[in-house]
Amino acid sequence: MAGRWLDLRWALSVLCVLLMAETVSGARDSSTGAHVSPQFPASGVNQTPVVDCRKVCGLNVSDRCDFIRTNPDCRSDGGYLDYLEGIFCHFPPNLLPLAVTLYVSWLLYLFLILGVTAAKFFCPNLSAISTTLKLSHNVAGVTFLAFGNGAPDIFSALVAFSDPHTAGLALGALFGYLGLYVFYVVTVILCTWIYRWQRRGSLVYSMPVTPEILSDSEEDRVSSNSNSYDYGDEYRPLLFYQETTAQILARALNPLDYMKWRRKSAYWKALKVFKLPVEFLLLLTVPVVDPDKDDRNWKRPLNCLHLVISPLVVVLTLQSGTYGVYEIGGLVPVWVVVVIAGTALASVTFFATSDSQPPRLHWLFAFLGFLTSALWINAAATEVVNILRSLGVVFRLSNTVLGLTLLAWGNSIGDAFSDFTLARQGYPRMAFSACFGGIIFNILVGVGLGCLLQISRSHTEVKLEPDGLLVWVLAGALGLSLVFSLVSVPLQCFQLSRVYGICLLLFYLNFLVVALLTEFGVIRLKST
């Protein structure tokens, strides 16, 4: 599954980037390698020439900071921290190894943030949504999980197509993009319904000869529930007492289980110390609904606080806070309106509910937590991409090599953590479905909706000119991987083994080697 995900995600992402690049990029100076931004006659404004950001390492030390701040190629598309400016403007040259070490340490901590967010907040809320709506794992994977993984990319695509010079497709083609995705989702739902109907009919005429086979995760859960002693009974008070609101809030925001802390090893305790700040921040901002608990994880003071903080986090993490600081009518920022509306809703919820009984609409908190955790994952993944890009500039990696390796992996890290965590928690079908559904959602809805919103502003056509052998290598690798899965998966009766995953990983490694050799000119077409 991991190989299939990386293969499809990377190749389609590169093809989309090439598609947009052919539309908006200007001419490339063949002698100097400098990029010149496209000149639009209607603008009437002189554009600043775009120079390759890697050239900063060849400049004098006194000129590097100004080059980073004035060159558009050195600016990040998103994120909260400017890592290139930090290296070349705030660290002296002799402390460059220290800066790289700090960046790598922060990169590792971002991986920790991604893992904690996916395992304890994103996946539980997604499971609660599928349980509440009675969705199969396949349908949940191609809908909610695909949306959670691809929603930030959709907003990026909308921004990319907001310029009239970057958008333009026939209206019929636009509805074709959107209609194709709707048809895909409807097909998955219909096939799932037919499968359940046939299975229900076969169970009526079959005798229960053998017991039901549980998955590994289900067996572990059953064995832990049947063989383990409830140590929590020893710590329960003999006399019943009513917790105050402050006590409930403090207990809900405490990420540390003292009983588990005493039983764990020193390694687990050291790792838990690093996780504590992240878990506390996520507990404060992301609600979690647990259908397996009697109270469904209802904590009235904390959940009411979530109604204020979670929407605020959503608007401040979406596109790195661009929409949050936008002023409505030039007077009131969006985040102020969100805080006011959230406070009013939280007040009504607090006085209309009780601490002991979850409200009837408590399941809606699963959607809020799902969206908030997805945007936290996107924000962390964006910082990962920016750090990797900065390291690529420092080590003077070419743009193609950077795109094939560090940036491709960085762009995929958020979705990979979500899918891997779901598979490990016993939902492999949901994760596998999202590998395909997320890419289809990004391309069809992102391109289709983005162009559809801007069709009235522009009538230019988007053209893809396959210039160079690398484009054909990308398209060929994508086609071969799809054909391989199309043939091998039915031959295995849809029972995927480790051999299938290893073959996909080997295919990706071979593709990466061929693509890099093509970029470096080792593999090239003979000139006639």
Automatic annotation (TrEMBL):
**Subcellular location, in the record's words?**
Membrane
Record-annotated membrane-spanning stretches? 103-123, 135-161, 167-195, 304-326, 332-351, 363-381, 387-409, 430-456, 468-487, 499-523
Q: Where is the Sodium/calcium exchanger membrane region domain?
A: 106-192, 366-516
Q: Which GO terms describe its cellular component?
A: membrane
Query: Chief localization class?
Result: membrane
UniProt KW keywords: Antiport, Calcium, Calcium transport, Ion transport, Membrane, Signal, Transmembrane, Transmembrane helix, Transport
Q: Which Pfam families match?
A: Na_Ca_ex
> Which GO biological process annotations does it have?
calcium export from the mitochondrion; intracellular calcium ion homeostasis
List the molecular function annotations (GO) for this entry. calcium:sodium antiporter activity
Which Gene3D superfamilies does UniProt cross-reference here?
NCX, central ion-binding region (1.20.1420.30)
How does the protein associate with the membrane? Multi-pass membrane protein
Positions the record marks as coiled coil are none
Q: Which residues form the signal peptide?
A: 1-26
Q: Which PANTHER family match?
A: MITOCHONDRIAL SODIUM_CALCIUM EXCHANGER PROTEIN (PTHR12266:SF0), NA+/CA2+ K+ INDEPENDENT EXCHANGER (PTHR12266)
Q: Write down what this protein is called.
A: Solute carrier family 8 member B1
Originating species = Piliocolobus tephrosceles
